[in-house]
Design brief:
By secondary structure, the chain is α+β, with helices and mostly antiparallel strands. Helix content is 27%, strand content 28%. The protein folds into 2 domains: 126 residues, 2-Layer Sandwich (D-amino Acid Aminotransferase, Chain A, domain 1); 158 residues, Alpha-Beta Barrel (D-amino Acid Aminotransferase, Chain A, domain 2), CATH 3.20.10. A hairpin with a 4-residue loop joins β9 and β10. The chain binds 4'-deoxy-4'-aminopyridoxal-5'-phosphate (PMP).
């Protein structure tokens, strides 16, 4: 990771799959008058490959399709074509463990709110991406509560993993980093605990895991995996309204996400947590699942 860290993303070597063709990494370009760039008409996925296989590839591809449908896009490739392209792309780039980014957007044919005649484009890129948080996070990350809140379902199609949703995530993350935190916890419009800027959140009390109901933010694939894993190991999992005032009742706290994997949390503002047995158990169980790939799509 470290040697790649400083290389801008448009200056790397390798191949990117663009609209059905493998092109040289540096040639994977779009025009500045692209609708997706100006109007946020863009959806994407974040996937991880472990030992050469994308974990939950089918679930991610299906979510990409759902996101696209919500945004009124018709992806011009089938699920089988996308999955085959993903596998070939990993091989062509010689990537065994890394991150995969499919993205779908509206092209430059029309530049106005209405974009019915714009063409739908799709690309897939992949690169090496180690831990999501830097080494200072090894004993758990420090979160602060963001000023920005997750909007109500009536204000944004929250089930779509669309790039527009990441505007407040980036603002919140920058504010957190400027103040010495690793990331931000976002509340929703009601003031209830929602999620981090790009990962879901869990808390523990005894042998019970508590996590907010995903009724205005992404119900992450890792979140669903962890709920099933925890239940199979005999933990109780409660999806419920969690208020920020309750944070002092919890013992452990961790984030879940494809990029973040299982990341223990050390503090949220002045609330402290001690990453312990449950964090460790979830971390190791998730690791073993991704390595053994019982869910791999061959
Ligand atoms: N919430 C947001 C806002 C995210 O960007 C992500 C990462 N995709 C998640 C939650 C976790 O989702 P997943 O586990 O599917 O990666």
């Amino acid at each position: 990771m470290s040697e790649n860290k400083l290389i801008p993303f448009d200056c790397r070597d390798g191949f990117i799959w663009l609209d059905g063709q493998f092109v040289d990494w540096k040639d994977a370009k779009i025009h500045v008058l692209t609708h997706g760039l100006h109007y946020g008409s863009c959806v994407y996925e974040g996937q991880r490959a472990y030992s050469g296989k994308v974990f939950k590839l089918r679930e991610h591809t299906e979510r990409l399709y759902r996101s696209a449908a919500i945004m009124d896009f018709k992806i011009p490739f089938s699920i089988a074509e996308i999955e085959a392209a993903t596998k070939e792309l990993l091989l062509k780039n010689g990537l065994v463990d890394g991150y995969v980014r499919p993205v779908v957007w509206r092209g430059p044919e029309q530049m106005s709110t209405s974009a019915r005649n714009s063409k739908i484009h799709m690309a897939i890129a992949c690169w090496h991406w180690g831990k999501y948080f830097d080494s200072s996070a090894s004993k758990g990350i420090k979160l602060t509560i963001a000023d920005w809140r997750r909007p109500p379902p009536s204000s944004s199609p929250f089930e779509a993993k669309s790039s527009g949703h990441y505007m407040i995530a980036t603002l919140s993350k920058h504010q957190a980093e400027n103040n010495g935190f690793h990331d931000a916890l976002m509340l929703d419009w009601r003031g209830q605990v929602a999620e981090a800027t790009s990962a879901n959140i869990f808390f523990t009390q005894g042998n019970t895991l508590h996590t907010p109901i995903p009724d205005c933010f992404l119900n992450g694939i890792t979140r669903q995996t962890i709920i099933a894993l925890a239940q199979s190991k005999g933990y109780d999992v409660v999806e419920r309204v969690i208020l920020p005032e309750e944070l002092d009742k919890f013992e452990e706290c961790f984030l879940t996400g494809t990029a973040a994997e299982i990341t223990p949390v050390r503090s949220i503002n002045n609330y402290e947590f001690t990453p312990d047995k449950i964090c460790q158990d979830m971390l190791l169980s998730y690791q073993s699942l991704t390595q053994n790939m019982e869910n791999k799509n061959d």
